[in-house]
Amino acid sequence: MSKKEVIFILLNGFADWEGAYISICLNWGVKPGSPVKYTVKTLSISKEPVISIGGFKVLPDYGINDMPDDYAGLVLIGGMSWRSPEALQIVPLVEKAIKDKKLVAGICDASFFLGVHGFLNHVKHTSNGLEYIKQAGDKYIGEANYINKQAVRDGNIVTANGTAALDFCREVLYALDADTPENIEESYQYYTNGLSPK
Description:
By secondary structure, the protein is an alpha/beta fold. 28% of the residues lie in helices and 17% in strands.
């Protein structure tokens, strides 16, 4: 069975930790021995290296002009560039993914980006606080759908605040049906509590 690609969108100054749990669970399996349905790829504006907040240099698999049509979803990793002019080039990719009913997931300032462009107006969502996302301006009219939680999944749209890498991971895994609910929960508990007894 060929594995579907989940494409992580990384801009310069991306937050290293925000996609780490998702990528390991998708690329290697939610639990050791679990079936692996997906493979992780990266995309940026171009194929030039992007550098994370923590100094990791990533060479993207794709630029915006050569991404494939056949993929399972987009994961927008937060960081320092989602309010920059270059981020506007990501808008058509998100529009198409939503139209095609693919996963669109955004954490931290990437959730703000989704709000700025009106993608969250009609779905339940979260961000780094209601006042934070209300700064998104006139296109954001989704206040009634805002939920003050670490991560929120509504259909194929997943949002999370910047401290919620684990919760974000769990909701993305559910949205992608990456494994059984039992395995997803066990993985979440393992990463949350470690090897210590429950």
